[in-house]
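=== Structure Prediction Worksheet ===
Name of assembly: unnamed complex
Input type: mixed (protein and possibly other molecules)
Chain count: two
Listed entries:
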Amino acid sequence: MEFHQPTTLDDALTLLAADPEALPLAGGATLVAMLNAELIEPSALVSLGGICELHTIEATPEGGLRLGAMLSHATLASEARLTGGNAVMRQAAAQIAHPAVRNIGTLGGAVAHGDPSSDLPAALVAADAVIEVAGPSGRRSIAAEGFFEDYLTTALEEGEMVAAVILPPQPESAVGHYEKFARVHGDYATLSVAVVLAMASGKCSHVRIALGAAGATPVRVVAAEARLIGSSLDAGAISEAAALLTAASDPVDDVRGSADYRLMLVPRLLTRALAAAGGAP
Amino acid sequence: MIIEEEFAVDAALAHVWQCIRDPGFVAPCVPGCQDVEDIGDGAYRAAVKVGIGPIKTTFNLDIEVLEETPPTFARVETRGQEGTNASRLTAKSELTLTASGNDATHVHYKSDVQVVGRLAKFGLGIMKKKAKALGAEFAENFRNAAEA
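=== Predicted Assembly ===
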């Protein structure tokens, strides 16, 4: 297996284009574990660690943030600019596995891996993030909601990689919260709820909700959000929204919980997440 | 893991049975099936390509019809391995066809699938979902072909 260490994004893309069996290596938290388990057999690894532009955080002209793909989860977890609604990203990153994994695992790696039980995908959908993809035919932007297509399957095409994640400016009073339920600290979520919520005069004025580990991709239901907007987030409204989210979920049965158990967590975690985001009546 | 599915085909029972026992008919309906060879006495060889994201493999399968009661029942055993023998698969399946009226047939199958080796490290939860999705894709392809 060959190992390449390009220093520019263009060089990395050229190397990936030249060999369809090559894989980009970000932090390696998941990819190296999969190599060790012999689940993947790439012909070459193209390390992205030496590409400066992937390590940057910058404010966008619109008032949001552009996060380079090679930022570690630990960096995101301590990023002071992830406030308000975008705090959902900071909280999700802070709850990924353990410090050692957060130090090597990266934003771009987690996004490209597209594991629905990992923490960042749901947070990205709740934050209405945009994934900036670089490939042989240039750059394109894909809304997070459409980016995750199936288990470990994303909208990335051959030769493409994640270059950055763009978080939009959130509504002024918005609060983000990531509610994760796991068997033990540091495990993958049995179920998680990412929420960005804004309240005005006791009524919900903005809400985006995405569930993690609830299906093949993060689960978002526009009708559930519509049921909450304008309400005071009373128990009846939350219960109807939760029923819509539950109906759209199709979780796996595994050691982290049966599918039925995961579905039962939806209303409970949604209630907690909304309360934590400032929606307590 | 047990995979159990059923689907309806708008075609007579005899026709559906004929289709389902014809490897040349079934092979193109199986997602990822690359080639199938009839080696006689109800035994077949096939290569099937499957993958979840970056994890991709080709299983070389030996399929044997152990018992059949035309036109309603067949018991099939499938054994397979990856090219490198890194994972092995065994599936014991039962297929039941029931006529529902003159021009419609109900197809039911139940498979007990065991996977050992490197792919078993992947976790059964997603594997079962993937098997279900492939089953649904097969049902759709088979229905379209049999009704044509």
